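Review form for a predicted model. The reviewer records the input and the model, then writes brief findings.
Reviewer: anonymous (R2)
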Amino acid sequence: MSARSIFSVIVLGLAACPVVSFAQTDVLPPVENANYIFSALTNATAMVRSGPAESYYATMKLGRDSPLTVVGIKYDWLKIVPPEGSFSYVAKQYVEKQADGTGRVTGDDVNVRAGSKLSSLKATVQCKVNRGDVVSIIGEADEYYQIKPPPGAFLFVHKTLANPVKVIGKATTQPATGGVAYERQPAPTTQPALTVEPHNEAEIARTQALQAKAETEFERLETEFKALDGTAIDQQPVPELLAGYEKLSRDENLPTSMLRVVERRLPVLRTKNEIREQVLAMMRKQEELKKKTDEATLIRQKQEEKMKATLEVYTALGTLQPSSFQPGGGTIYRITDPATGRTQCYVRTNDPKYPEFIGKFVGVKGKLINDPQLTLDVVDATAIAVVDPGAVNKRVTAHVLPPSMRQGAAQTATTEGN
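Model under review:
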């Protein structure tokens, strides 16, 4: 059995509040004030919460021997005046900021929400303010002003974490605000006896540690969730976030207000995870296709390189024939198409062995130039060799190739020289 159910504070002389069962909501249920206000000191590190249950988010952490002003009790919880450093939130749209730093409320039944130094939550409604009320502005957060807690805004501490000290006055309720004032007057003839049963500090500390751990994990996940916007879905840590929120949804130490946020996040993350898996699958297919395309390109390049390494390239291929046109500066020969006998280009050389190649299918190497005295280009030959016509376009090719031997090209007529 937990410390919450074992230990209780017995406050004699204080008016007991009626026990009202309620469902946990973000709107704080009414917690009536006691007839007497008393001071107390925390007896351990204490979490101050926005409502009278551990399901409400913590607003601040107090050290041991921190002073409290207690105005009421609800179940196991002490209703306290917000400690020094506490703040509340009110929507900017209902407040007209004044030059002196105060704000004048411009609407009716405007919610005042509990602020927290430990998280960005602002869900619990503490009280309401109305048109004409003045609030003290101490900061801003998003669409809210941070204000000093107005009359009627209270916080809560578990009764096992505080020891009553003394009655400090008789409570008087201020109907217009719902706040509490007290008269510093002599205590009743019979001083109310204030006693606290012993409690297990180790168990309380353990419970608080578990709650703090759950709330810290919640804040971490919320920060990562908000960082998803603007990030490509394939780079989002959706599976890790989904697993973290699912685990947190089963944590009994998580406050109800945070649990509701977790429950809203889960379906969003599950949908995101499905979309992410579809995108990743498509990217894998694209990567596989690119890999296959790259492999095919590589194979083709290797084949081309291999062909280039074994391919003999001549300047001109064809049947060598004599020419009747001899303008001087070397003997002129003709390279003809073996299928048509038409001249493709001229060959000029002083090499005496060239007549041996007349009538043979040859390959000639040299510089291909344009000679204005000739009707076709001429090769200033540097080498000649007999070539197998069957090797053309396989192991042999040339810049000047007979039309009849070109792959996929129609035969073109050429002018036969003299």
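Findings: The chain has a mean pLDDT of 82.
Further findings: The two ends are 120 Å apart (CA to CA).
Recommendation: see findings above.
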